[in-house]
Each structure stands twice: as C-alpha cells, then as structure tokens.
Write a structure and sequence with these properties.
By secondary structure, this protein is mostly helical. 65% of the residues lie in helices and 4% in strands. The radius of gyration is 29 Å and the shape is elongated.
Length: 433
C-alpha cells in the first residue's frame, strides 16, 4: 500500500509541476515575443510601442508604456504565482523521488556518501547557485551579456560534472535543473517582482519611477527565457538513459544546452533579421552527432565472458579425455565432441540469462513486483516470461549493459559478469530456446 500511495503522490505532484511549468514558460515565451514584436514607429505619447493581434476569434490591441500610465488601473494582473508554484512543486517532486530513498535514487552506486550529506549537497547547491549567479549579474561582468553567459555556462557544466561523480545520472541532471530553476524563480522573487512593486508604488505616490529597476527586471526575464529550453530537456531526460546514463553525461548535457540556447536565440531575434536562422539546422545536426557518439558499442557474438568459456571448455575436454582413455579406438569422434562442446560455450546459455534477469530485474519489473517500492512494474516494463525478455532485449541492453543504470542503484547487486552474460546473449540474437 505504501508503494501505491507513493506512486500516486509522485503522479499528483508531477502533474502539478507540469501544469504550472507550462503556464510559467508559456508566459515567458509570450512576453519576450511581445517585447520583440512591438511596433515602435511613432508611438503615441508615453508609449514605447504597441501591437495589434488576432487570436481565438478576437482582435487585441496591446500597448506598452515607457514606464507607467499616469494613473494605475484598478485591475492589474501580476505574473508570479506560475513561477512560485512551479518551483515549489519541483522541490516537492525532488523530495518524493530522490530524497525519500536517497541511497537508491540519489547516490551513485559505489560512492561512499552518506544519504543525508547527499541531500545537504543537493539543497546547498541550489542556494549557492543562485547566490553566485546574483553576484555575477550585479558585478561589472553583468554589463557584458555574452561573457556573463559564457561564465554561467561553464559554472553550470562544472556543477553537472561534480554531480555526476557522486549522484546517479538522473539525480545529477535533475539537480542541475534544480539550480537553474532556483535561479529563475530567484529572478522573479528578488529582482522582477521588487522592480514591479517599486514601479506601481511610484505611480500611486505620484512620483517619477526609477527606470533602472524595470530595466534590470527585463534583463533577468530574458535570462529566464534562455534558461527554459535546457530546463525542459532536463525535465524529460529521465526517459533517455543514453544521455544521463553515459560516462560523459555532463558533456552530453553541455552539448544539448548549447543547442537549446542557439534555438532559443533564433526565436528571440527572428523579428529583427534572419541572420541566426543557421542555428536551426545546426541544432538538428548537433542532435544527430550526439545520437551517433552516444550509440552503445555492440559486443561481438563471441564476446561471452572469457572465464565462463574457459572453465566450460576445460571441463568438457577433461570429460573427453576420460572417454578417450576408455575407448582409444575412436579418437576422431572424441576430438569432434570436444570441439562442438567448446563452440557451444561461445553462446550465452539462456537458462543462465533467465535466472539472472529473474534474480536481478523482476524484483521490480514484474506483473507482481516483490520490491516494496513498487506496486506495479515501473513504466509497465515487465520481464516475467522468456517472450517478454526477448521482446525487450534492446532496452535491456541499453539499461543494464551499455549504460549500466539498471538495476536502479544496483540494489540487487548485479555483477559485471552477469551484465556480460546478458550482453553476449543479446549480441547472439536473444534466443530463448
């Protein structure tokens, strides 16, 4: 019952996180688009531009003031709760998924790190990330956007590398996303909202608003806009083990982040010119290159564990020699039997493979999981029968042989010889007879 409750808690929080995230990111995209597409030619007095638009059967006229209208309207919509709700639901999801079972989901197998210390590092990195970012933005570096972006990129990827040394691949990625998400919500809470409140208060007090605060808020809003696509990738990355499960997962994340920022830059600037249209085919080519370099290396059909082959061959030859001594008149037949027996050990014995999968994998991936953590098979992935094992051979290879991210946290202690055995069986066609 506890596993069933946790699953539905996970679902509920994840759904809330997705809904609020769509609202926040959608608003970010829309207002950056609106800012970029304002008609700034001959605006009426007090305006910096306006825009006519049609959507959903209606025509809209939007105006942006240089600072503020002479009188504050009665109804003014504030865009803040989307950001706060997204961050809070994301933290709650992290607690449920990673911090309730840190030794399983958070800490990298083989790393001797206390679960409590892993949680402290996770939370501490979010706070430290925002503090460092805020300091850099307010430093002279903040006046050089390109250089600031490069420095932030290097620091974020350095964090990804550090996380990959102590956290599981999925946890490393999600904590990078948590740092970026904390920076984004910090921009809203500590910079954008205070600037907006100061603007409203100046209007209410009939004083001249300080133009530097809205300008700073607009800059941080643009930063958030460029952060969105890398964060979106991180949100879905746990479905793609060839990224987070790679030995070089931090480099893969760096590559995808660069491509995402390039694509976002094109959409942010295409109103002005098409000089960045090259970023779209470049991003597509980059994704193809990443898919190529992360492809798992297939084992040769004869790549059965050497120790297993040698032991089996030795035992077979010993038996053949015993037969030869008893029947010396048929040496040719004995040699043939030895050769056949030795050759047969080159193919993985499915009975052994099936035993390993049942012992190491179906604890969770079964119609009736024996693990108390799951009430149903994760992602509906079941390995109860030989037919299911054969049908899922490619995924088994990706998860247990190529990236070795399964069993999760290696909770069932799958050995390297067992992974090699499964790899050899799949390389030879995943036969079950």
């Amino acid at each position: 019952m506890e596993a069933h409750f946790t699953e539905w808690l996970n679902l509920g929080i994840r759904w809330i996180h997705m809904i609020t995230g769509i609202a926040w990111i959608g608003a970010s995209f829309y207002f950056v688009w609106l800012e970029n597409n304002l008609n700034r030619s001959n605006p009426r007095e007090g305006l910096s531009g306006d825009l006519w638009a049609i959507h959903g059967g209606g025509i809209y006229h939007l105006e942006k003031y240089k600072l503020a209208p002479p009188k504050m309207p009665e109804n003014l919509h504030w865009f803040k709760w989307e950001a706060y709700a997204t961050w809070l639901s994301g933290i709650a999801l992290m607690l449920v998924v990673y911090y309730l079972n840190p030794s399983l989901y958070l800490i990298k197998p083989g790393v001797e790190l206390a679960p409590a210390m892993g949680i402290v590092i996770g939370f501490g990195s979010m706070i430290a990330g925002y503090v460092i970012y805020h300091f850099l933005c307010d430093s002279p570096l903040g006046k050089r956007p390109a250089l600031l972006g490069a420095v932030l990129f290097v620091l974020i990827i350095a964090a990804a590398y550090g996380f990959s040394q102590i956290f599981s691949g999925r946890a490393a990625y999600i904590h990078v996303g948590a740092i970026i998400g904390t920076i984004m919500v910090g921009n809203v809470f500590f910079t954008i909202m205070p600037a907006q409140r100061a603007l409203v208060k100046a209007i209410e007090d009939n004083t001249t608003p300080d133009p530097t605060l809205p300008a700073k808020g607009l800059l941080r809003s643009r930063h958030n806009n460029y952060f969105t696509l890398p964060v979106l990738f991180i949100m879905i990355s746990n479905h793609f083990p060839s990224t987070y499960g790679s030995q070089y997962n931090w480099l893969i994340l760096a590559g995808i982040a660069i491509l995402a920022v390039l694509v976002r830059h094109y959409f942010n600037t295409r109103h002005d010119s098409s000089k960045y249209v090259w970023t779209l085919p470049a991003a597509a080519l980059g994704m193809i290159c990443l898919a190529y370099v992360t492809a798992p290396v297939r084992q040769a059909p004869t790549a059965a564990p050497v120790a297993v082959v040698e032991q089996a061959a030795s035992e077979t030859l010993a038996k053949v020699e015993e037969v030869s001594e008893a029947a010396p008149a048929a040496p040719a037949a004995s040699e043939s039997a030895a050769a056949d027996a030795t050759a047969s050990t080159g193919s993985a014995d499915f009975a052994k493979v099936e035993s390993v999968i049942h012992e190491r994998c179906t604890v969770c991936h079964s119609a009736t999981p024996s693990s108390p953590m799951f009430s149903t098979a994760p992602a509906g992935f079941m390995l109860d029968t030989p037919e299911q094992m054969k049908a899922q051979a490619a995924k088994i290879h990706a998860q247990t042989v190529a990236t070795q991210i399964m069993p999760l946290g290696n909770i069932t202690q799958m050995t390297q010889d067992e992974r090699d055995l499964i790899g050899s069986w799949i390389a030879q066609g995943a036969q079950t007879n």
